[in-house]
Structures are given as C-alpha cells and as structure tokens.
UniProtKB/TrEMBL annotation:
Catalyzes the reversible interconversion of serine and glycine with tetrahydrofolate (THF) serving as the one-carbon carrier. This reaction serves as the major source of one-carbon groups required for the biosynthesis of purines, thymidylate, methionine, and other important biomolecules. Also exhibits THF-independent aldolase activity toward beta-hydroxyamino acids, producing glycine and aldehydes, via a retro-aldol mechanism. Homodimer. Belongs to the SHMT family. This is Serine hydroxymethyltransferase. It is found in: Cytoplasm. Pathway: One-carbon metabolism; tetrahydrofolate interconversion; Amino-acid biosynthesis; glycine biosynthesis; glycine from L-serine: step 1/1. Its cofactor is pyridoxal 5'-phosphate. It comes from Candidatus Nealsonbacteria bacterium RBG_13_42_11. (6S)-5,6,7,8-tetrahydrofolate binds at L116, G120, H121, L122. The modification N6-(pyridoxal phosphate)lysine is found at K225. Pfam families: SHMT. It catalyses: (6R)-5,10-methylene-5,6,7,8-tetrahydrofolate + glycine + H2O = (6S)-5,6,7,8-tetrahydrofolate + L-serine. The lineage of its organism: Bacteria, Candidatus Nealsoniibacteriota.
Length: 424
C-alpha cells in the first residue's frame, strides 16, 4: 500500500503496534478495540475538510455531505443517550470538560470536584491542570473505611463551599455513581451538576448503570472507552438553563458556543463520522450483550483477585474496572507494570485512596474488562488472566515462570484473536 512506500518507517511502526495489540491482553480499563468499521471511517479524506461552525451554519463552502454526517452523529448520540442536545465536536474528553467550564463558569468561579487520588481525573480540578489553575476547586473524596463516595460528606463540603458547579466524575472508581443524590445536593445550593461518564458511557447506554439524565445539566464523555468508538469527546446537555432560565442563551447554545468558537476551530469530521458509526453499533442488541459481559468479567476478575489474597479498593466492583492494592508487596507498581508489559498483559499503575506513595509510582494497579471482553473472553478466561497477573507479581524475579506466563498469554490471544482480516 501507499504508506509502506511513502514512509516505510511509520508504516513499520504502525504494523508493530497493531501486532502488539493483537498479541497482548489489554486490561487498561480506558482502552478498547474499535471495530474495523469505526477505524475505516477515521482513515478517510473527510480529514481534509474544514467545517467550522455547525450543520447549515458553516464558515466554509463544500460542507453539504459533512453536514449530513455531523447531523447523523448528533441525532444518534441524542438517541442512545436520551439527551435533549448533543455536541459531537470535542476532540477529547479533556476538551469536552474545558468547554463545559468555559460555558458555565467565569475565571476563579467555585467548583466542587473529586480528588484525583479518590478516582478523579486531571481535568476535574487537579492543581497541575488548567482546571485547577483557572477555577477555584474544592474536592470530595471517598470514605476512609468504605472507600466509596460519601454523599453526606459531599453535601457538607458543598454547603460550606457553595460551588457554582458540582462534578460527578471518575476514572478509577469501581462503584455506582448516584446522580440523583448528587442532584439533590446541587439543588440545595443552586449549583449546576455535570457528570463525566467517560469510563461508564457504554454501561449507561446499555442501561446497566443509572443514567445521568434527567439529574445532570451537562454530561461529558469520551467515545473510545466502554463505548468502543473512535478516540474523541462528546457533550450532551439539557436545552434549558435551569439556573439562568431567562438568560439570552439556552444551556445548549452556551455549550455550542463554548465548543466553537470558544475552545476549538475546525472539527475533526473523519472522527465525527466514526463517532456516528460507533453510536449506530451501540444501538444493536449485541452491544447490550457485550456490556453485560464486561460487568460479568469484571466481577469474576475482582472475585479471583480476592481469592488470590489481593485487596481491591472498596472491596469489589459494580462496573468495568477495579483498582488493586499492591502495597503489601515489596515490588513497586511501576516495576510490576513493566514486567506485565513484557509478558503482554497491559495494565496501568494508579493511586489508591489516601495513597502515601507518589503518583508516578503509586500503590495501586487499575484493571478492567472492556478490551478482553471485546476479544471474546468470558468469566473463566478472565479468572485465568487474573491468576497469571498474580503469579507474575508473586514471582517477579522468576524468569521461568515469567516465560510460562508469556507463552500462556500468547495462547489466549490466539484463541481469542482480534482484527483477524483487518485491512489498512
Ligand atoms: N487517561 C484516561 C484513563 O485512562 O482513564 C482518562 O482520561
């Protein structure tokens, strides 16, 4: 193909990365294998087109087909998420969050977000992120005993701090998010409520996690995690602005303006086409079956970790992920992650609540089931994968065991292949 001739170095590296993905088991809960149809939509000349603005309100000519594509993506997003309004243009989850802040807040306005070490995200107010620098954040965390979000504590902080916006959002939290209860708190102090459901979007669409609507004003997500679409962001919101009903702009108009021209220029229409494909895939019965299996596999994994004597933060999982506590082991999380890399088991190290160790080398490892479930692994194999991980952690210096694990991982990937006839 052309790429191989034009740029053999990049061609070769892409090929190697595809092989790595095929030959390893991805347990990073935020990663997945998008379908060949999704990938195919992304690798198209749609990437050439400038389309600043929105369907029928563009600043450039030649957008008749782009308008149809983006309209389809919007309508499908609204349908699968039961949303009044959708903006499919955010390039990423971080940009989606930045956009919501720009739409709803002024510089230094007060926001209540979740602490990074309790399972939050950088854009939920981390001091090293734009969110923590531009806005005045307070944080809620998890209860030190249950390691779950304590709504009474959230309410106490909210009443004292009086934020303009409360964020319900997680990237490493294995328990159900109670949007309805958050809304009660937001109502008491007249704050906006936003949910970032990037991790659980697929579960929400499948009806396997409580829905953020009608409780939240705005919902952000990425499209590539449990939703299994292209890399990108999405904002869903109500049309009316609950806290500013007589304002010049509706909530949906504020959001659209904050995306363009507020934070972005030309949208990535090749990615928007791929988002439309992913939303269509998410309407199929097979998607619900897939999401159910994600949960079954995650529960089996958590149960197997416990059987193997490993502590799971909060004691288990309700969703697709879990964080295991590796502090009782002498080996550091970075080393464990590196060793697992070598046998083709991909995980990411992660802080645990009240972690005493630094973020670069914390006390936890985060794992999830979305990608292995896409490959077709079920509970039995998910349990075996856990046993392989634990065996490696416990025998970190044993080369023989490490080689046996590597061989077994390869066998599993051969039994559950991915991208078999993938053309690129
Ligand atoms: N980096 C993502 C995750 O792994 O959860 C969040 O943006």
């Amino acid at each position: 193909m052309n790429l191989a001739k034009t740029d053999p170095k990049i061609y070769d590296l892409i090929k190697k990365e595809i092989e790595r993905q095929k030959d390893g088991l991805v347990l990073i809960p935020s990663e997945n294998y998008a379908s060949p149809a999704v990938l195919s939509a992304m690798g198209t000349p749609l990437s050439n087109k400038y389309s600043e603005g929105y369907p029928k309100k563009r600043y450039y000519g030649g957008n008749q087909f782009i308008d149809e594509i983006e309209t389809l993506a919007i309508e499908r997003a609204k349908k699968i998420f039961h949303a009044e309004h959708a903006n499919v243009q955010p390039h990423s989850g971080s940009q989606a969050n930045a956009t919501v802040y720009l739409a709803l807040l002024n510089y230094r306005d007060k926001v209540l977000g979740i602490d990074l070490s309790a399972g939050g995200h950088l854009t939920h107010g981390s001091p090293v992120n734009f969110s923590g620098k531009l806005y005045n954040f307070a944080y809620y965390g998890v209860d030190s005993k249950t390691e779950r979000i304590n709504l009474r504590e959230v309410e106490k902080i909210a009443k004292k701090f009086k934020p303009k916006l409360i964020i319900v959002s997680t990237t490493a939290y294995s328990r159900t998010l109670e949007f309805k209860k958050f809304r009660k708190i937001a109502d008491r102090i007249k704050a906006y409520l936003m949910a970032d459901i990037a991790h659980i979007a697929g579960l929400v669409v499948a009806g396997l996690h409580p829905h953020p609507f009608p409780w939240c004003d705005v919902v952000t997500t990425t499209t590539h995690k449990t939703l299994r679409g292209p890399r990108g962001g999405l904002i869903l919101c109500k049309i009316k602005d609950r806290l500013d009903p007589k304002g010049k702009l509706t909530l949906s108009q504020k959001i659209d303006k904050a995306v363009f021209p507020g934070t972005q220029g030309g949208p990535l229409e090749h990615v928007i086409a791929a988002k439309a494909v992913c939303f269509l895939e998410a309407m199929r019965p097979s998607f619900k079956k897939y999401q159910k299996q994600i949960i079954l596999n995650a529960r089996a994994m958590a149960d197997e970790f416990k059987k193997q004597g490993i502590r799971i933060v909060s004691g288990g999982t309700d969703n697709h992920l879990m964080v295991i506590d590796i502090s009782p082991f002498k080996t550091e999380s970075k080393r464990i992650q590196d060793e697992l890399d070598e046998v083709g088991l991909y995980v990411n190290r992660n802080a645990i609540p009240f972690d005493k160790r630094p973020p670069y080398n914390p006390s936890g490892i985060r794992l999830g089931s979305p990608a292995i479930t896409t490959r077709g692994l079920k509970e039995k194999e998910a349990r075996e994968v856990v046993r392989l991980i634990v065996s490696l952690i416990k025998n970190i210096k044993n080369t023989k065991i490490k080689n046996q694990i590597k061989k077994r991982v390869k066998e599993i990937t051969r039994k559950f292949p991915i991208y078999v006839d993938f053309q690129w």
